[in-house]
Amino acid sequence: MNKRFILGIAAAVGILAQGATAQEMSFFRIGTGGTAGTYYPIGGLIANAISNPPGSRACEDGGSCGVPGLVATAVASNGSVGNINAINGGQLESGFTQSDVAYWAQTGTGLWEGQPAVEKLRLIANLYPESIHLVASAESGIASVADLKGKRVSLDEPGSGTLVDARIILEAYGLSEGDVKPEFLKPDQAADRMRDGAMDAFFFVGGYPAGAIAELASQHDIKLVPIEGEAADKLREKYTFFAADSFPAGTYNGQDGDVATISVGAQMVTSADQPEELIYNITKAIYNDNTQKLFAAGHAKGKLITLDNATEGAGIPWHPGAEKFYKEAGKLE
């Protein structure tokens, strides 16, 4: 090698080193849910929106409007409870959870009774309402929650927020797991069983339209069972994280009219250990104008991920970075 070639290599290495220092790459994992639900595609939208790896064009040049140097990924998971445990254990930087599950975890009550509270759990944003789906095969004859007695019912898998809410709903209508033939399957697995005639009904908590249910409805006659009446009213009084909701007519194939139900909030949470500046920049990236357009075009629930909804129903403390952004935006005092 001649001296000029060696000096050229040294200069190139120096330039690369300077670039790496100027913009270090960091990774940010977002725990979502099963691939058939709503969390996973929404997680992908958010991951793409906040990512801006080294070498990307800046937002003003028509490139990403995300956080410089950040590479975010949506990770499929078991849902709310699993995501909170993974955040607490350091396996995820953030994740999605139902507002009820977040409250129980952070306070050590309800679902977390007898377990150490996840005291460092912090809120980044309230995203959209998650509707309680109770899907029944049309041939099962199930028309109300009370009709589940003696039927084959999937309550979702252990560790999911859906399982927790399914048990609460059964109790509100005077039933328990012992009154049904319970199974504990993901919604896509339960839908497969229903298609084969081996499942009468299943619960799912998530934004509509849910992929697994939409696919099932296109191939099999189903009925969305209403969660309404005096039992539902008392349920909302007792558990204030539930809200009145409904599925508009035509949400799923064969659904002629609106169907009443209840909902919880889908929230993006993290740990208090995450840097304030990072969470501030992530929150800012989620709510810039370009990202909002991408959300609205990318998913039915994306239209609801707005700055106006972001601070609704906060049952746990804000992460300081998110709180700083919302105060600057005039959404928090």
Automatic annotation (TrEMBL):
Residues 1-22 form the signal peptide. It holds the Pfam family NMT1_3. It comes from the Bacteria. Keywords: Signal. NCBIfam families: TRAP_TAXI. This is TAXI family TRAP transporter solute-binding subunit. It comes from Paracoccus aurantius.
